[in-house]
Amino acid sequence: MTDKDEVLELYKKYVMTTYAPELLLVRGRDAKVTDADGKDYLDFLSGISVLNVGHGHPKVVHAIARQANKLMHVSNLYFNEMQPRLAKALSDRSLGGKCFFCNSGAEANEGMFKLARLWGSEQGKYEIVTMRNSFHGRTLATMTATGQTKYQKGFAPLMPGFVYADFNDLNSVRNVVADKTVAVLVEAVQGEGGIIPATQEFMTGLRALCDEKKILMLCDEVQCGMGRTGRWFGYQHYGVQPDAFSLAKALGGGFPIGALVAAPKLSEVFKPGNHASTFGGNPLACAAALAAIEAMEEEEMLHNAVHMGKIFMDGLSSLSAKYGAIEQVRGLGLMVGLVCNKPTKPLERIMREKGLIALATGESVMRFLPPLNVKEVQVRKALQLMDESMAVWADSQKK
Ligand SMILES: *Cc1c(COP(=O)(O)O)cnc(C)c1O
């Protein structure tokens, strides 16, 4: 039995207070996690879209154990057999170009910014247009790229070379594109910003604008990628192709790994010495990622994400007739947002008490990111727990 008090005391004393956890989880299997008191929860967050194959997927667990026992790390001074296999797997499913591997979403975006700047350097182009309400990470450059001032406060000066436009507003992008612009960066579905899918018009328009101005279209697929929306990558819903995109979160099936995936046009921009990452694409992380991709394909998880996403969104929509707090249900595949008319943090706690884990996002959105192999009975159960939670929430407001 985990000594909960001891863990909490150690955490308080020795871990920086950048997070505010309220729950000590000790075990997970598929869409279920268990806390230190032995209470089970339905995990409709998947570690923020990291466990897309669910907790403890046997394929991923075995791949990690096997590879750890064989060869964990060699540095990028040497080949390892897993890295090019993973690069091919990603390239085949997307842009047909090349990949660079790193360890997180922020690092993948940093690499993408460097790639874009290097590509534009001969013409003196460097500025990147990003969207308001976006999220791209917490390093200095990615925090600057993130179009939300709340993440930037206190960290001035921000990184030069970023300007902002309004998401889903092509004119606002057009207005800030200048001679020094090198790229436009967009999430096909804004995640952190409250699960807001891009419109078809916006994505098509962006691609055309980037072609017209001879600049790059970049996608941040860190959250909406790896099958989350029912396609491998979020942009694939729109019939357009970016010039490069970033990945992390679910890429390693729970193991940390990030990637920058480029179209052939950008595949030869980086030369030896231009960019590097010590852990990037090590055999252990790549073995985990390959196993996760294989599991998703064998078990047809993309198809399941579409199917379960529809059942879940329909179910949430029918709750809106019963609860006035619900304004809208939106999303793509199993990336689902419940938009309410008041802050959702209290609802998150009520849901947790009922045994359902999700995340209050933005001011008033509840964000759901269940594993892509979630079963229909689990979706129905989550809907029932949502019904009960909404009732408690409504009652608590009356008092
Ligand atoms: C989580 C996230 C990031 C940052 O990823 P880290 O691994 O935390 O650095 C970047 N972009 C998007 C869209 C994300 O959701």
Architecture overview:
- The model has no long low-confidence stretch (mean pLDDT 97).
- Helices cover 39% and strands 18% of the residues.
- Helix 3 packs antiparallel against helix 10 and helix 11 packs parallel to helix 13 (376-398).
- It has helices at 4-14, 46-49, 58-70, 82-92, 105-120, 140-145, 170-176, 200-213, 264-267, 283-298, 301-319, 345-354, 376-398; strands at 25-29, 32-35, 40-43, 99-102, 127-131, 162-165, 181-186, 189-190, 196-197, 216-220, 244-247, 258-262, 326-332, 335-340, 356-357, 359-361, 365-368.
- By secondary structure, the protein is α/β, with parallel strands linked by helices.
- Pyridoxal-5'-phosphate is lined by residues 104-106, 135-137, 187, 191-192, 220, 222-223, 248-249.
Order of helices and strands: HEEEHHHEHEHEHEEEHEEEHHHEEHEEEH
Provide the low-confidence segments as ranges: none
Strand content: 15-25%
Largest sheet: 7 strands, mixed
Task: Produce the secondary structure layout.
Elements: H1 4-14, E1 25-29, E2 32-35, E3 40-43, H2 46-49, H3 58-70, H4 82-92, E4 99-102, H5 105-120, E5 127-131, H6 140-145, E6 162-165, H7 170-176, E7 181-186, E8 189-190, E9 196-197, H8 200-213, E10 216-220, E11 244-247, E12 258-262, H9 264-267, H10 283-298, H11 301-319, E13 326-332, E14 335-340, H12 345-354, E15 356-357, E16 359-361, E17 365-368, H13 376-398
Parallel strand pairs: 3-15, 5-6, 5-7, 7-10, 10-11
Antiparallel strand pairs: 1-2, 2-3, 4-12, 8-9, 11-12, 13-14, 14-17, 16-17
Helix pairs in contact: 3-10, 4-10, 11-13, 12-13
Bound molecules: pyridoxal-5'-phosphate.
